[in-house]
Design a protein that fits this description.
Collagenase (Catalytic Domain); 3 domains; 4-stranded mixed sheet; globular
Length: 400
């Protein structure tokens, strides 16, 4: 029987809640085909373009406000919902459009004029509190909109990714519902039976089986009083799936990384200017914990890790174990959020996968996103370097 990664098991059994106050999304699976009609594409593009336009107006307004008030305020993106395994973030063009419309309906007329029309704003009628409050929400929707625009182009791949949904396995494991408990399935209250059935279908889907086929097989197992055998049949696949969020796959192992005397060395592209260089160097300060520190060897060479700036881009790496850390040209190099995001992306350069999941739910017609743990930098935008990350890196690169 397959076992859960020990460090992940420890976190799972001691962590009371799984919160994701920020939600910075990252690399998307490779796939093609959006499965959208031309009408849907136009409608989605209109929502994305409207959100981008609002963000551009916001940036202009902040600059004007700072000049007018002789201040230097900054607005950080914030989403209206946290993303936990119990309550995932669900978003679509429709939900983004609704939130954008709701914001317009509640903000002051002068702020609405500044952000959604070409009229000249009266800055004296816009409060700093309103600018920060509504600005952070618009910035959050902007990040969500450009993320959606990227993912919907690969919708078919994200539909397939739904088989990696760990919520079913997580529910059974966290409730200690093992085979011995499931032999008593018919004795549970009906409401709990329904939750268990949904979780069992989820574990079956981890074996890349369609939901309809899983439901049909489970129905027969309930009738035959073999629910425990059903779980036993699919449990190992769920464990393998769970562990895949924490292990560096062989295909992503780099040949230019070494670990000697607890120092991980890796080449890195010489940056264009001091600001970019300092931004890249921030990786070293954030990748430091007892047992490991990172040393970037800056070189003017090709085919080594590098930071690539692109307009209206979501932070990601071109592939797991890849070289290009792609980030938005509008980012603030000195902000804690940007540096934290860069540190996460650097983890992908080393081959570490995301330990959050994102997929397209066909029934809800929306993308679903949630993190597995809140304290791990590869799971959460608020996470940090953890012992389990160090152990994985040493296992892969320490023997080279």
């Amino acid at each position: 029987m397959k076992k859960l990664i020990a460090s992940a098991l420890l976190i799972l059994t001691t962590q009371a809640s799984l919160a994701h106050p920020d939600c910075v999304f990252h690399a998307a699976p490779i796939g093609s085909g959006s499965g959208q009609t031309m009408k849907q594409k136009k409608a989605d593009s209109a929502v994305v373009n409207a959100t981008i336009a609002a963000k551009e107006k916001l940036d202009e307004l902040i600059n004007l406000f700072n000049v007018f008030s002789s201040k230097n305020i900054r607005v950080l993106a914030a989403l209206s919902q946290v993303s936990t395994i119990e309550k995932p973030l669900k978003y679509s063009a429709q939900t983004i459009a609704k939130e954008l419309n709701d914001l317009q309906a509640t903000m002051s007329p002068e702020l609405k004029k500044a952000l959604f029309t070409d009229g000249k704003p009266n800055l004296s009628k816009i409060s700093e509190a309103d600018l920060k409050n509504y600005g952070s929400k618009i910035a959050g929707l902007y990040e969500l909109a450009i993320r959606y625009d990227l993912l919907i182009q690969r919708k078919s791949a994200y539909i397939e990714a739904s088989t990696r949904d760990v919520r079913g396995f997580h529910y059974l494991y966290s409730k200690a519902l093992d085979e011995s408990k499931l032999t008593q399935f018919n004795q549970y209250p009906l409401a709990e039976q329904e939750r268990i059935k949904s979780a069992l279908i989820g574990t079956c889907r981890n074996s890349k089986i369609k939901a309809s086929a899983c439901a049909k097989e489970l129905k027969a197992s309930i009738q035959n009083n073999t629910v425990a055998a059903f779980y036993s049949k699919y449990r190992n696949s769920s464990v393998i799936n769970w562990n895949s969020f924490f292990q560096i796959p062989e295909s992503a192992v780099r040949s230019d990384v070494t670990i000697r005397n607890n120092v991980l060395e890796i080449p890195f592209k010489m940056q264009k200017n001091n600001q970019m260089h300092d931004f890249a160097k921030s990786i070293e300060s954030r990748w430091k914990l007892a047992g490991l520190e990172v040393s970037l060897d800056f070189k003017d060479e090709k085919n080594i890790p590098n930071i690539v700036l692109k307009d209206n881009s979501v932070a990601h790496v071109n592939k797991l174990g890849g070289n290009d850390i792609i980030m938005n040209t509008s980012l603030d190099f000195q902000s804690f959020t940007s540096q934290r995001t860069l540190s996460h992306e650097f983890g992908h350069v080393l081959g570490l996968p995301d330990c959050y999941i994102e997929f397209y739910d066909e029934e809800e017609e929306a993308f679903v996103n949630y993190q597995l743990f809140k304290d791990d930098m590869m799971c959460s935008s608020n996470g940090k370097l953890t012992p389990r990350i160090i152990a994985e890196l040493k296992k892969v690169y320490g023997s080279k």
